[in-house]
């Protein structure tokens, strides 16, 4: 961002060389690993989901153990639309974001009023309630068997979703890039700066004229909407929705990915999701029984030796190299 805002010390959302390098990596992967595109699209979708959690956890300081509730709402919204005859991808994705955002707005008034423990319990409770509701409404959602009658139309009327996952990969990457740019623009604005100030000291902010409650509600709603878009992407690209999209393990896993990559750093969501899912895929093929042990060792090492996740470790190493001897 240029102009007065930049002079006031606001974080910049200008596109840099390393931004280009980071976003070229999945483009290179598209050509280098044509047989792994299905996994690649799921990594991208999960990264977008982790980015939505980063808005409330890394920037606003809202702790959530039920963020999969909004991911699942978006998945079921897009899936049900396609299953009932409307398989247009972009409008289905928009509906997924709107439904999840509306649910986030309704839930936010309960969440933002409490302390960290209250936030944990409320978000966890909402997630469990939606999970059981989807399980009970098996005529609509398919219950434990999942929703599988999802027929997607051609993307933009031109590109059919193929079995190799090429269209799904490009579609997911494009949506993730747009979502990233939107989130970065919001968080690099005065609104985003106020969220970080609220995270550091919410008690002082009303004295500065900042409406703390409204800012947190807006952040929670935005995070829920982006999580819904990620869930809609998953149902459209896999053409299946299972109950696990609403499950507690999915909420816990995305929290682990964010901590692993580095909460509050935007790219931490992408790096954490890629590292976690690629390691999970590799270790599960290497040792199907004990792969979680090695993931646990990695997490403990990152928490002990690198505050701020992998990106925190990288920043510490950079600062040490720049420090004069």
Write the layout of secondary structure elements.
Layout (H helix, E strand, L loop, with lengths): L3 H4 L9 H16 L4 H23 L8 H16 L5 H23 L4 H21 L1 H4 L24 H22 L2 H12 L10 H27 L9 H14 L5 H20 L4 H15 L3 H14 L3
Helix pairs in contact: 3-8, 3-10, 3-11, 3-12, 4-5, 4-10, 5-10, 8-10, 9-10, 11-12, 11-14, 12-13
Overview of the molecule:
The protein is mainly alpha-helical. The protein has one domain: ABC transporter involved in vitamin B12 uptake, BtuC (Orthogonal Bundle). Helices cover 71% and strands 0% of the residues. The chain contains 14 helices and no strands. Helix 3 crosses helix 11, helix 8 runs antiparallel to helix 10 (212-238) and helix 11 (248-261) crosses helix 12. Residues 1-9 have low confidence and may be disordered.
Quick rundown:
The protein has helices spanning 4-7, 17-32, 37-59, 68-83, 89-111, 116-136, 138-141, 166-187, 190-201, 212-238, 248-261, 267-286, 291-305, 309-322. With 325 residues, the protein is mainly alpha-helical.
Q: What class do helices, strands and sheet pairing give?
A: mainly alpha
Helix percent reads over 70%
The percentage of residues in β strands lies in: under 5%
For the CA atoms, what is the radius of gyration? 20 Å
State the low-pLDDT regions, or none.
Answer: 1-9
Q: Largest sheet at a glance?
A: none
How many individual β-strands?
0
Order of helices and strands: HHHHHHHHHHHHHH
CATH architecture assignment name: Orthogonal Bundle
By DSSP (H or I, 4+ residues per run), the number of helices equals 14
Q: Indicate the multimeric state.
A: single chain
**Termini, distance in Å?**
34 Å
**CATH class (first level) name:** Mainly Alpha
What coarse outline follows from CA principal-axis ratios? globular
């Amino acid at each position: 961002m240029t102009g007065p805002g930049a002079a006031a010390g606001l974080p910049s959302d200008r596109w840099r060389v390393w931004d280009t390098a980071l976003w070229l990596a999945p483009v290179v992967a598209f050509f280098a690993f044509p047989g792994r595109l299905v996994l690649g699209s799921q990594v991208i979708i999960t990264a977008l989901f982790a980015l939505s959690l980063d808005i409330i956890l890394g920037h606003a300081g809202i702790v959530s153990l039920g963020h999969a509730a909004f991911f699942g709402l978006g998945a079921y919204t897009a899936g049900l639309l396609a299953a009932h005859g409307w398989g247009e991808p972009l409008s289905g994705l928009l509906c997924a974001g709107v439904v999840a955002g509306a649910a986030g707005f309704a839930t936010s008034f309960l969440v933002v009023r409490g302390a960290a423990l209250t936030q944990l319990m409320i978000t966890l409770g909402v997630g469990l309630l939606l999970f059981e509701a989807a399980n009970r409404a098996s005529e609509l959602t398919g219950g434990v068997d999942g929703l599988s009658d999802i027929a997607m139309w051609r993307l933009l009327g031109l590109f059919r979703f193929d079995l190799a996952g090429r269209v799904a990969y490009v579609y997911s990457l494009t949506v993730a890039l747009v979502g990233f740019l939107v989130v970065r623009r919001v968080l690099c604005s005065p609104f985003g700066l106020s969220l970080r100030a609220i995270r550091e000291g919410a008690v002082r902010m009303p004295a500065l004229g900042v409406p703390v409650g409204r800012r947190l509600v807006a952040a929670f709603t935005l995070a829920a909407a982006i999580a819904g878009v990620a869930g809609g992407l998953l149902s459209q690209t896999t053409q299946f929705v299972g109950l696990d999209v609403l499950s507690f393990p999915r909420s816990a896993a995305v929290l682990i990915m964010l901590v692993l990559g580095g909460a509050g750093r935007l790219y931490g969501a992408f790096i954490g999701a890629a590292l976690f899912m690629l390691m999970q895929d590799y270790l599960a093929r290497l040792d199907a029984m004990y792969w979680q042990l090695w993931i646990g060792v990695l997490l403990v090492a990152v928490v002990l030796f690198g505050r701020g996740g992998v990106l925190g470790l990288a920043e510490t190493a950079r600062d040490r190299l720049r420090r004069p001897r």
